[in-house]
Description:
By secondary structure, chain A is α+β, with helices and mostly antiparallel strands. Chain A is built from seven helices and 18 strands.
Amino acid sequence: MPPLHLLKRVCRLLLTAFRLKSGMRYFVSFLLLFNALSVKAISLTDNLDVSGFARVIGGYMDGAESQDFGGYENSISLGQESLLAIQPTYSLTDSLSITGQLLAHSSENRDSGAEWMYLSYRPDSAWHFRAGKLRMPFFSYSDSLDVGYSYPWISAPNQVYRNYLFSTFKGASGSYNYTGLNYSLNLEAYYGYYDGDILIAGKRVDVDGKLTDLTGVVLNLSSHNFGLRLSYHYAYNESIIYSLLSLQQALEQAGFSDSARSVDSKGDVNFFEAALTYDTLSSFYKAEWVHTTTEFQAAPELTGYYFTAGYIIGDWTLRATYAASAYSETHAEDEVQAFLDSGIIPPGSPQYAQLSELADGYYQLFQSLPDGSLDTYTLGARWDFDLNMALKLDVSYLEETAPRSGFFATPSTGFYTEENVSDRYSATLYQLGWEWIF
Amino acid sequence: MKRLIIYISLALFPTMPVLALAEENLVVVANTGGQELTLTREQVRNLFMGASLGYDFRPLALPPRNRTRSLFNTQVIGLTEARIQSYWSQMKFTGRMNPPREFNNKDELLSFIESHEGTVTYLPADVVIPSGLTIVYSTD
Protein backbone atom coordinates (compact mmCIF):
# COMPACT_ATOMS: atom_id res chain seq x y z
CA MET A 1 0.00 0.00 0.00
CA PRO A 2 1.47 3.43 -0.86
CA PRO A 3 2.57 5.31 2.29
CA LEU A 4 0.18 8.23 1.76
CA HIS A 5 -2.77 5.85 1.57
CA LEU A 6 -1.62 4.06 4.69
CA LEU A 7 -1.29 7.37 6.48
CA LYS A 8 -4.76 8.49 5.44
CA ARG A 9 -6.21 5.25 6.75
CA VAL A 10 -4.42 5.57 10.09
CA CYS A 11 -5.60 9.16 10.49
CA ARG A 12 -9.18 8.26 9.61
CA LEU A 13 -9.09 5.46 12.15
CA LEU A 14 -7.83 7.80 14.86
CA LEU A 15 -10.44 10.42 14.10
CA THR A 16 -13.17 7.79 14.20
CA ALA A 17 -11.85 6.55 17.53
CA PHE A 18 -12.16 10.01 19.03
CA ARG A 19 -15.66 10.47 17.70
CA LEU A 20 -16.93 7.36 19.46
CA LYS A 21 -19.14 8.25 22.37
CA SER A 22 -18.50 7.65 26.07
CA GLY A 23 -15.78 5.55 27.67
CA MET A 24 -15.38 3.43 24.58
CA ARG A 25 -13.68 6.37 22.92
CA TYR A 26 -10.89 6.42 25.48
CA PHE A 27 -10.48 2.72 25.44
CA VAL A 28 -9.96 2.67 21.69
CA SER A 29 -7.72 5.72 21.80
CA PHE A 30 -5.61 4.21 24.54
CA LEU A 31 -5.22 1.00 22.62
CA LEU A 32 -4.10 2.93 19.59
CA LEU A 33 -1.70 4.99 21.66
CA PHE A 34 -0.32 1.93 23.33
CA ASN A 35 0.18 0.32 19.99
CA ALA A 36 1.97 3.35 18.71
CA LEU A 37 4.23 3.70 21.75
CA SER A 38 7.03 1.79 20.11
CA VAL A 39 6.93 4.17 17.16
CA LYS A 40 9.28 7.12 16.87
CA ALA A 41 9.14 9.82 14.22
CA ILE A 42 9.31 7.85 11.04
CA SER A 43 10.32 8.49 7.48
CA LEU A 44 7.98 6.39 5.39
CA THR A 45 9.87 7.27 2.25
CA ASP A 46 12.78 9.63 1.59
CA ASN A 47 10.29 12.45 1.07
CA LEU A 48 7.64 11.69 3.67
CA ASP A 49 8.26 12.25 7.35
CA VAL A 50 5.61 11.57 9.99
CA SER A 51 5.74 12.76 13.59
CA GLY A 52 3.13 13.60 16.18
CA PHE A 53 2.13 14.15 19.76
CA ALA A 54 -0.42 13.04 22.29
CA ARG A 55 -1.61 14.02 25.73
CA VAL A 56 -3.90 12.45 28.26
CA ILE A 57 -5.10 14.93 30.86
CA GLY A 58 -7.31 14.18 33.83
CA GLY A 59 -8.79 16.85 36.05
CA TYR A 60 -11.05 17.40 39.02
CA MET A 61 -12.39 20.67 40.40
CA ASP A 62 -13.20 21.15 44.05
CA GLY A 63 -15.51 24.10 44.78
CA ALA A 64 -17.70 26.42 42.69
CA GLU A 65 -20.47 23.79 42.59
CA SER A 66 -22.67 23.71 39.51
CA GLN A 67 -20.04 25.69 37.59
CA ASP A 68 -17.31 24.43 35.37
CA PHE A 69 -13.91 25.82 34.60
CA GLY A 70 -12.53 25.04 31.16
CA GLY A 71 -14.82 22.02 31.17
CA TYR A 72 -13.61 20.71 34.55
CA GLU A 73 -16.26 19.96 37.17
CA ASN A 74 -16.37 18.21 40.52
CA SER A 75 -16.05 14.80 38.93
CA ILE A 76 -12.98 13.29 37.32
CA SER A 77 -12.82 14.17 33.65
CA LEU A 78 -10.45 12.99 30.93
CA GLY A 79 -12.27 14.57 28.03
CA GLN A 80 -11.27 18.24 28.21
CA GLU A 81 -7.70 18.40 26.97
CA SER A 82 -6.75 14.88 25.89
CA LEU A 83 -5.74 14.66 22.26
CA LEU A 84 -3.69 12.92 19.62
CA ALA A 85 -2.11 14.49 16.54
CA ILE A 86 -0.20 13.27 13.55
CA GLN A 87 1.96 15.55 11.45
CA PRO A 88 2.99 14.33 8.01
CA THR A 89 5.44 16.44 6.01
CA TYR A 90 6.03 15.74 2.36
CA SER A 91 9.12 17.34 0.75
CA LEU A 92 8.62 18.27 -2.88
CA THR A 93 12.14 19.68 -3.22
CA ASP A 94 14.87 20.71 -0.74
CA SER A 95 13.16 24.05 -0.15
CA LEU A 96 9.50 23.24 -0.79
CA SER A 97 7.28 21.03 1.36
CA ILE A 98 3.67 20.36 2.36
CA THR A 99 2.75 19.85 6.02
CA GLY A 100 -0.51 18.84 7.64
CA GLN A 101 -1.41 18.37 11.26
CA LEU A 102 -4.36 16.07 11.88
CA LEU A 103 -5.81 16.38 15.31
CA ALA A 104 -8.22 14.12 17.19
CA HIS A 105 -9.49 16.09 20.18
CA SER A 106 -11.56 14.77 23.07
CA SER A 107 -13.31 18.06 23.89
CA GLU A 108 -16.75 18.72 22.44
CA ASN A 109 -15.74 22.35 22.05
CA ARG A 110 -12.98 21.49 19.62
CA ASP A 111 -13.34 20.00 16.17
CA SER A 112 -11.16 17.10 15.13
CA GLY A 113 -9.53 17.36 11.73
CA ALA A 114 -6.80 19.33 9.99
CA GLU A 115 -5.49 21.94 12.41
CA TRP A 116 -2.67 22.99 10.11
CA MET A 117 -2.33 22.48 6.35
CA TYR A 118 0.23 24.54 4.52
CA LEU A 119 2.80 24.84 1.80
CA SER A 120 6.23 25.83 3.06
CA TYR A 121 9.00 27.50 1.07
CA ARG A 122 12.50 28.01 2.50
CA PRO A 123 14.72 29.72 -0.09
CA ASP A 124 17.67 29.84 2.36
CA SER A 125 18.33 29.44 6.07
CA ALA A 126 17.15 32.97 6.87
CA TRP A 127 13.78 33.21 5.10
CA HIS A 128 10.69 31.06 5.48
CA PHE A 129 7.32 31.51 3.78
CA ARG A 130 4.11 29.60 4.37
CA ALA A 131 0.64 29.64 2.88
CA GLY A 132 -2.50 27.71 3.75
CA LYS A 133 -4.28 27.02 7.03
CA LEU A 134 -2.06 28.12 9.92
CA ARG A 135 -2.45 28.59 13.63
CA MET A 136 -2.63 32.12 15.03
CA PRO A 137 0.76 33.07 16.51
CA PHE A 138 -0.94 35.41 19.04
CA PHE A 139 1.19 34.74 22.12
CA SER A 140 4.26 32.65 23.13
CA TYR A 141 2.44 29.30 23.20
CA SER A 142 -0.71 30.06 21.17
CA ASP A 143 0.28 28.00 18.17
CA SER A 144 1.69 25.10 20.21
CA LEU A 145 -1.13 24.96 22.82
CA ASP A 146 -2.02 21.43 21.73
CA VAL A 147 1.59 20.32 22.20
CA GLY A 148 1.58 20.07 25.99
CA TYR A 149 5.13 18.71 25.94
CA SER A 150 6.35 22.11 24.71
CA TYR A 151 5.38 24.08 27.82
CA PRO A 152 5.71 23.59 31.57
CA TRP A 153 2.04 23.60 32.71
CA ILE A 154 -0.81 21.20 32.04
CA SER A 155 -3.02 24.11 30.96
CA ALA A 156 -1.19 27.26 29.87
CA PRO A 157 -2.45 30.20 32.02
CA ASN A 158 -6.14 30.67 31.18
CA GLN A 159 -6.04 34.42 31.61
CA VAL A 160 -3.78 34.68 28.58
CA TYR A 161 -4.43 31.53 26.57
CA ARG A 162 -8.12 30.78 27.00
CA ASN A 163 -9.37 34.20 26.11
CA TYR A 164 -8.59 34.34 22.49
CA LEU A 165 -11.60 33.76 20.29
CA PHE A 166 -10.18 31.69 17.45
CA SER A 167 -7.01 29.71 16.95
CA THR A 168 -6.42 29.27 13.23
CA PHE A 169 -6.53 31.40 10.09
CA LYS A 170 -6.19 31.01 6.36
CA GLY A 171 -3.53 33.10 4.73
CA ALA A 172 0.21 33.47 4.37
CA SER A 173 3.14 34.22 6.63
CA GLY A 174 6.77 35.10 6.16
CA SER A 175 9.61 35.05 8.64
CA TYR A 176 13.21 36.20 8.68
CA ASN A 177 15.86 35.25 11.18
CA TYR A 178 19.27 36.69 11.85
CA THR A 179 22.06 36.12 14.35
CA GLY A 180 24.53 38.77 15.44
CA LEU A 181 27.62 38.19 17.58
CA ASN A 182 25.58 38.30 20.79
CA TYR A 183 21.93 38.04 19.86
CA SER A 184 19.50 36.43 17.49
CA LEU A 185 16.25 37.80 16.19
CA ASN A 186 13.28 36.45 14.33
CA LEU A 187 10.66 38.61 12.70
CA GLU A 188 7.42 37.10 11.49
CA ALA A 189 4.51 38.75 9.68
CA TYR A 190 1.25 37.31 8.39
CA TYR A 191 -1.98 38.23 6.64
CA GLY A 192 -5.23 36.29 6.33
CA TYR A 193 -8.81 35.80 7.44
CA TYR A 194 -10.86 33.62 9.76
CA ASP A 195 -14.29 32.15 9.22
CA GLY A 196 -15.69 29.71 11.78
CA ASP A 197 -16.59 29.06 15.40
CA ILE A 198 -15.87 31.55 18.14
CA LEU A 199 -14.80 30.38 21.58
CA ILE A 200 -15.22 32.34 24.80
CA ALA A 201 -13.19 30.93 27.70
CA GLY A 202 -12.70 27.79 25.65
CA LYS A 203 -16.43 27.29 24.98
CA ARG A 204 -18.15 27.44 21.63
CA VAL A 205 -20.66 30.29 21.64
CA ASP A 206 -23.62 31.08 19.40
CA VAL A 207 -21.73 33.43 17.12
CA ASP A 208 -21.12 33.31 13.40
CA GLY A 209 -17.42 34.20 13.52
CA LYS A 210 -15.85 36.15 10.72
CA LEU A 211 -12.66 38.17 10.92
CA THR A 212 -11.03 39.82 7.95
CA ASP A 213 -7.82 41.77 7.31
CA LEU A 214 -6.06 39.68 9.91
CA THR A 215 -2.58 41.15 10.16
CA GLY A 216 0.20 40.62 12.65
CA VAL A 217 3.88 41.00 13.41
CA VAL A 218 5.87 39.00 15.93
CA LEU A 219 9.38 39.86 17.06
CA ASN A 220 11.49 37.35 18.97
CA LEU A 221 14.80 38.56 20.31
CA SER A 222 17.20 36.48 22.36
CA SER A 223 20.55 37.26 23.90
CA HIS A 224 22.44 35.02 26.30
CA ASN A 225 19.91 33.91 28.92
CA PHE A 226 17.25 36.48 28.03
CA GLY A 227 14.40 36.18 25.56
CA LEU A 228 11.91 38.86 24.54
CA ARG A 229 8.75 38.42 22.47
CA LEU A 230 6.72 41.38 21.29
CA SER A 231 3.71 41.06 19.05
CA TYR A 232 0.83 43.03 17.62
CA HIS A 233 -2.20 41.58 15.87
CA TYR A 234 -5.11 43.29 14.15
CA ALA A 235 -8.42 42.06 12.76
CA TYR A 236 -11.64 43.56 11.49
CA ASN A 237 -14.47 41.75 13.22
CA GLU A 238 -17.58 41.03 11.13
CA SER A 239 -18.97 38.34 13.41
CA ILE A 240 -22.72 38.08 13.98
CA ILE A 241 -23.81 37.52 17.58
CA TYR A 242 -27.28 36.03 17.16
CA SER A 243 -28.40 36.66 20.72
CA LEU A 244 -27.90 40.41 20.22
CA LEU A 245 -29.37 40.73 16.77
CA SER A 246 -33.00 41.28 17.77
CA LEU A 247 -32.07 43.76 20.50
CA GLN A 248 -29.95 45.69 18.04
CA GLN A 249 -32.77 45.80 15.47
CA ALA A 250 -35.35 46.89 18.05
CA LEU A 251 -33.11 49.74 19.23
CA GLU A 252 -32.46 50.77 15.65
CA GLN A 253 -36.20 50.81 14.82
CA ALA A 254 -36.98 52.86 17.90
CA GLY A 255 -34.46 55.42 16.70
CA PHE A 256 -31.77 54.85 19.32
CA SER A 257 -28.88 54.49 16.93
CA ASP A 258 -26.08 55.02 19.51
CA SER A 259 -27.53 52.26 21.67
CA ALA A 260 -27.95 50.00 18.65
CA ARG A 261 -24.34 50.63 17.70
CA SER A 262 -23.16 49.77 21.24
CA VAL A 263 -24.41 46.18 20.89
CA ASP A 264 -22.96 45.75 17.40
CA SER A 265 -19.73 43.77 17.62
CA LYS A 266 -18.43 44.90 14.22
CA GLY A 267 -15.20 46.84 14.25
CA ASP A 268 -11.47 46.78 14.87
CA VAL A 269 -9.86 44.32 17.27
CA ASN A 270 -6.28 44.81 18.46
CA PHE A 271 -4.05 42.43 20.40
CA PHE A 272 -0.81 43.52 22.09
CA GLU A 273 1.64 41.19 23.76
CA ALA A 274 4.99 41.31 25.57
CA ALA A 275 6.83 38.37 27.11
CA LEU A 276 10.18 38.14 28.86
CA THR A 277 12.05 34.96 29.72
CA TYR A 278 15.22 34.15 31.60
CA ASP A 279 16.66 30.64 31.35
CA THR A 280 19.50 28.89 33.13
CA LEU A 281 20.52 25.26 33.35
CA SER A 282 18.68 24.83 36.64
CA SER A 283 15.89 27.43 36.57
CA PHE A 284 13.60 29.50 34.36
CA TYR A 285 11.47 32.59 34.75
CA LYS A 286 8.80 33.87 32.42
CA ALA A 287 6.35 36.76 32.42
CA GLU A 288 3.80 37.44 29.71
CA TRP A 289 1.31 40.26 29.38
CA VAL A 290 -1.48 40.59 26.84
CA HIS A 291 -3.97 43.34 26.16
CA THR A 292 -6.94 43.26 23.79
CA THR A 293 -9.01 46.21 22.67
CA THR A 294 -12.14 46.19 20.51
CA GLU A 295 -14.61 48.70 19.10
CA PHE A 296 -17.40 46.57 20.56
CA GLN A 297 -18.78 48.64 23.44
CA ALA A 298 -19.92 45.51 25.29
CA ALA A 299 -16.39 44.04 25.31
CA PRO A 300 -14.00 46.94 25.28
CA GLU A 301 -10.69 45.84 26.83
CA LEU A 302 -9.15 42.80 28.39
CA THR A 303 -5.79 42.45 30.11
CA GLY A 304 -4.20 39.19 31.21
CA TYR A 305 -0.76 38.30 32.49
CA TYR A 306 1.23 35.69 34.39
CA PHE A 307 4.56 35.15 36.10
CA THR A 308 6.10 31.75 36.41
CA ALA A 309 9.30 30.46 37.97
CA GLY A 310 10.64 26.94 37.68
CA TYR A 311 13.44 25.05 39.32
CA ILE A 312 15.04 22.00 37.69
CA ILE A 313 16.45 19.12 39.74
CA GLY A 314 17.58 16.22 37.57
CA ASP A 315 14.54 15.01 35.61
CA TRP A 316 12.15 17.01 37.78
CA THR A 317 10.87 20.55 37.32
CA LEU A 318 9.04 22.30 40.14
CA ARG A 319 7.19 25.48 39.32
CA ALA A 320 4.97 28.22 40.70
CA THR A 321 2.73 30.47 38.61
CA TYR A 322 0.57 33.48 39.33
CA ALA A 323 -1.90 34.61 36.67
CA ALA A 324 -4.48 37.39 36.63
CA SER A 325 -6.99 38.95 34.27
CA ALA A 326 -9.22 42.01 34.26
CA TYR A 327 -11.80 43.48 31.91
CA SER A 328 -12.27 47.21 31.56
CA GLU A 329 -15.58 48.70 32.65
CA THR A 330 -18.42 48.64 30.15
CA HIS A 331 -20.70 51.62 29.64
CA ALA A 332 -24.23 51.46 28.30
CA GLU A 333 -25.57 54.41 26.34
CA ASP A 334 -28.06 56.45 28.37
CA GLU A 335 -30.25 57.74 25.52
CA VAL A 336 -33.11 55.25 26.07
CA GLN A 337 -33.36 56.04 29.79
CA ALA A 338 -33.01 59.76 29.11
CA PHE A 339 -35.85 59.60 26.60
CA LEU A 340 -38.09 57.75 29.07
CA ASP A 341 -37.25 60.28 31.79
CA SER A 342 -37.97 63.25 29.51
CA GLY A 343 -41.73 62.68 29.77
CA ILE A 344 -42.29 63.01 26.02
CA ILE A 345 -44.23 59.76 26.20
CA PRO A 346 -46.69 59.76 29.10
CA PRO A 347 -45.88 57.04 31.67
CA GLY A 348 -48.63 54.43 31.75
CA SER A 349 -49.18 54.50 28.00
CA PRO A 350 -48.63 51.25 26.03
CA GLN A 351 -45.82 52.94 24.13
CA TYR A 352 -44.05 53.76 27.39
CA ALA A 353 -44.37 50.17 28.60
CA GLN A 354 -42.95 48.87 25.35
CA LEU A 355 -40.05 51.25 25.49
CA SER A 356 -39.22 50.52 29.12
CA GLU A 357 -39.18 46.83 28.27
CA LEU A 358 -36.62 47.58 25.57
CA ALA A 359 -34.64 49.70 28.04
CA ASP A 360 -34.72 46.87 30.60
CA GLY A 361 -33.39 44.38 28.06
CA TYR A 362 -30.64 46.75 27.00
CA TYR A 363 -29.47 47.74 30.50
CA GLN A 364 -29.74 44.17 31.76
CA LEU A 365 -27.41 43.07 29.01
CA PHE A 366 -24.74 45.48 30.20
CA GLN A 367 -25.23 44.14 33.72
CA SER A 368 -24.59 40.59 32.53
CA LEU A 369 -21.37 41.07 30.61
CA PRO A 370 -18.22 39.26 31.68
CA ASP A 371 -16.38 42.23 33.17
CA GLY A 372 -14.86 40.72 36.31
CA SER A 373 -11.40 39.41 37.15
CA LEU A 374 -9.72 36.15 38.05
CA ASP A 375 -6.55 35.30 39.97
CA THR A 376 -4.91 31.89 39.73
CA TYR A 377 -2.11 30.42 41.84
CA THR A 378 -0.63 27.21 40.48
CA LEU A 379 1.96 24.86 41.94
CA GLY A 380 3.14 22.14 39.63
CA ALA A 381 5.67 19.45 38.93
CA ARG A 382 6.90 17.90 35.70
CA TRP A 383 8.82 14.65 35.55
CA ASP A 384 10.67 13.95 32.30
CA PHE A 385 10.84 10.23 32.99
CA ASP A 386 11.84 9.27 29.48
CA LEU A 387 13.07 10.95 26.34
CA ASN A 388 10.06 12.71 24.74
CA MET A 389 7.69 11.78 27.56
CA ALA A 390 6.69 13.65 30.67
CA LEU A 391 4.23 13.38 33.53
CA LYS A 392 2.81 16.55 35.03
CA LEU A 393 0.86 17.39 38.14
CA ASP A 394 -0.76 20.80 38.68
CA VAL A 395 -2.77 22.15 41.58
CA SER A 396 -4.39 25.54 40.94
CA TYR A 397 -6.32 27.78 43.26
CA LEU A 398 -8.76 29.89 41.23
CA GLU A 399 -10.32 32.96 42.75
CA GLU A 400 -12.61 35.51 41.15
CA THR A 401 -11.58 38.89 42.54
CA ALA A 402 -14.68 40.47 40.97
CA PRO A 403 -17.81 38.61 39.78
CA ARG A 404 -18.18 37.58 36.12
CA SER A 405 -14.52 36.90 35.29
CA GLY A 406 -15.72 35.09 32.19
CA PHE A 407 -13.87 31.88 33.11
CA PHE A 408 -16.35 29.92 35.19
CA ALA A 409 -19.13 28.50 33.06
CA THR A 410 -20.82 31.08 30.92
CA PRO A 411 -23.89 30.08 28.89
CA SER A 412 -23.67 29.56 25.15
CA THR A 413 -24.59 33.20 24.58
CA GLY A 414 -21.40 34.34 26.31
CA PHE A 415 -23.47 36.47 28.73
CA TYR A 416 -24.32 35.89 32.37
CA THR A 417 -27.82 35.12 33.54
CA GLU A 418 -29.75 36.58 36.48
CA GLU A 419 -28.87 33.56 38.66
CA ASN A 420 -25.10 33.94 38.51
CA VAL A 421 -24.67 37.61 37.69
CA SER A 422 -23.34 38.59 41.11
CA ASP A 423 -21.74 35.32 42.27
CA ARG A 424 -18.03 35.27 42.97
CA TYR A 425 -16.53 31.81 42.57
CA SER A 426 -13.40 30.17 43.89
CA ALA A 427 -12.20 26.61 43.46
CA THR A 428 -9.21 24.32 43.49
CA LEU A 429 -8.36 22.49 40.30
CA TYR A 430 -6.30 19.28 40.34
CA GLN A 431 -4.81 18.06 37.09
CA LEU A 432 -2.63 15.12 36.16
CA GLY A 433 -1.21 14.78 32.67
CA TRP A 434 0.87 12.61 30.44
CA GLU A 435 2.65 14.27 27.51
CA TRP A 436 4.27 12.52 24.62
CA ILE A 437 5.91 13.50 21.33
CA PHE A 438 7.05 11.14 18.63
CA MET B 1 25.76 5.53 55.83
CA LYS B 2 27.94 7.19 53.22
CA ARG B 3 26.81 4.63 50.65
CA LEU B 4 23.16 5.28 51.58
CA ILE B 5 23.62 8.99 50.95
CA ILE B 6 25.13 8.24 47.56
CA TYR B 7 22.20 5.95 46.67
CA ILE B 8 19.64 8.51 47.76
CA SER B 9 21.32 11.31 45.88
CA LEU B 10 21.60 9.14 42.77
CA ALA B 11 17.89 8.38 42.99
CA LEU B 12 17.00 12.00 43.55
CA PHE B 13 19.42 13.54 41.09
CA PRO B 14 19.92 11.08 38.25
CA THR B 15 21.59 13.70 36.08
CA MET B 16 24.01 14.77 38.81
CA PRO B 17 27.01 13.59 36.72
CA VAL B 18 26.19 16.56 34.43
CA LEU B 19 28.05 18.73 36.91
CA ALA B 20 31.21 16.73 36.33
CA LEU B 21 30.85 17.33 32.60
CA ALA B 22 31.77 20.94 33.02
CA GLU B 23 35.42 19.88 33.41
CA GLU B 24 35.81 18.46 29.89
CA ASN B 25 36.35 20.62 26.85
CA LEU B 26 34.67 20.67 23.46
CA VAL B 27 35.46 22.00 20.03
CA VAL B 28 33.03 23.05 17.34
CA VAL B 29 34.30 22.15 13.88
CA ALA B 30 33.01 23.13 10.46
CA ASN B 31 33.68 22.19 6.88
CA THR B 32 34.25 25.75 5.63
CA GLY B 33 36.03 24.72 2.45
CA GLY B 34 39.37 25.88 3.88
CA GLN B 35 38.14 29.32 4.99
CA GLU B 36 39.23 30.58 8.45
CA LEU B 37 36.32 31.44 10.75
CA THR B 38 35.66 31.92 14.45
CA LEU B 39 32.29 32.02 16.13
CA THR B 40 31.23 33.30 19.57
CA ARG B 41 29.54 30.97 22.05
CA GLU B 42 26.27 32.83 21.45
CA GLN B 43 26.56 32.29 17.69
CA VAL B 44 27.21 28.57 18.18
CA ARG B 45 24.25 28.35 20.58
CA ASN B 46 21.94 30.18 18.17
CA LEU B 47 23.10 28.06 15.24
CA PHE B 48 22.25 24.84 17.08
CA MET B 49 18.92 26.29 18.21
CA GLY B 50 17.98 26.88 14.58
CA ALA B 51 18.94 30.48 13.85
CA SER B 52 20.66 31.56 10.67
CA LEU B 53 24.19 32.96 10.87
CA GLY B 54 24.00 34.48 7.42
CA TYR B 55 26.24 31.73 5.96
CA ASP B 56 24.47 28.61 4.82
CA PHE B 57 25.65 26.50 7.76
CA ARG B 58 23.99 23.21 8.59
CA PRO B 59 24.40 22.04 12.20
CA LEU B 60 24.67 18.30 12.88
CA ALA B 61 24.27 16.67 16.25
CA LEU B 62 24.89 13.54 18.28
CA PRO B 63 21.88 11.72 19.74
CA PRO B 64 20.36 12.41 23.20
CA ARG B 65 22.12 10.62 26.08
CA ASN B 66 25.43 10.84 24.18
CA ARG B 67 28.10 12.13 26.56
CA THR B 68 29.46 14.77 24.15
CA ARG B 69 25.92 16.01 23.48
CA SER B 70 25.29 16.35 27.23
CA LEU B 71 28.54 18.33 27.52
CA PHE B 72 27.45 20.60 24.67
CA ASN B 73 23.99 21.10 26.21
CA THR B 74 25.57 22.09 29.52
CA GLN B 75 28.45 24.23 28.33
CA VAL B 76 27.09 25.89 25.20
CA ILE B 77 23.29 25.68 24.99
CA GLY B 78 22.77 26.10 28.75
CA LEU B 79 19.60 23.98 28.91
CA THR B 80 18.83 20.43 30.00
CA GLU B 81 18.03 17.77 27.37
CA ALA B 82 14.33 17.75 28.31
CA ARG B 83 14.08 21.52 27.84
CA ILE B 84 15.87 21.32 24.50
CA GLN B 85 13.41 18.61 23.43
CA SER B 86 10.51 20.83 24.56
CA TYR B 87 11.90 23.70 22.52
CA TRP B 88 12.20 21.55 19.40
CA SER B 89 8.72 20.12 19.88
CA GLN B 90 7.37 23.66 19.79
CA MET B 91 9.45 24.57 16.72
CA LYS B 92 8.57 21.37 14.87
CA PHE B 93 4.83 21.25 15.55
CA THR B 94 4.38 24.93 14.73
CA GLY B 95 6.18 24.28 11.45
CA ARG B 96 9.01 26.72 12.11
CA MET B 97 12.14 24.57 12.23
CA ASN B 98 13.40 21.05 12.63
CA PRO B 99 16.17 20.01 15.02
CA PRO B 100 19.70 19.36 13.67
CA ARG B 101 20.13 16.02 11.95
CA GLU B 102 21.50 13.40 14.34
CA PHE B 103 24.24 10.82 13.82
CA ASN B 104 24.78 7.74 15.96
CA ASN B 105 28.40 8.43 16.88
CA LYS B 106 31.30 10.79 16.23
CA ASP B 107 32.86 8.57 13.54
CA GLU B 108 29.72 8.66 11.39
CA LEU B 109 29.49 12.37 12.05
CA LEU B 110 33.11 13.03 11.05
CA SER B 111 32.90 11.09 7.83
CA PHE B 112 29.70 12.95 6.84
CA ILE B 113 31.05 16.37 7.71
CA GLU B 114 34.31 15.79 5.80
CA SER B 115 32.39 15.25 2.59
CA HIS B 116 29.76 17.98 3.04
CA GLU B 117 30.78 21.62 2.89
CA GLY B 118 28.83 23.96 5.17
CA THR B 119 28.22 21.38 7.90
CA VAL B 120 29.09 22.11 11.55
CA THR B 121 29.25 19.95 14.65
CA TYR B 122 30.70 19.59 18.14
CA LEU B 123 33.30 17.05 19.24
CA PRO B 124 35.37 16.28 22.35
CA ALA B 125 38.49 18.46 22.39
CA ASP B 126 40.81 15.44 22.33
CA VAL B 127 39.53 14.09 18.99
CA VAL B 128 42.05 14.41 16.14
CA ILE B 129 40.44 16.85 13.73
CA PRO B 130 40.93 15.96 10.04
CA SER B 131 42.92 18.60 8.14
CA GLY B 132 39.98 19.65 5.94
CA LEU B 133 37.95 20.91 8.90
CA THR B 134 38.20 24.22 10.75
CA ILE B 135 37.81 24.70 14.49
CA VAL B 136 35.36 27.60 14.77
CA TYR B 137 34.86 27.55 18.54
CA SER B 138 36.44 25.96 21.59
CA THR B 139 35.14 25.85 25.18
CA ASP B 140 38.73 25.90 26.42
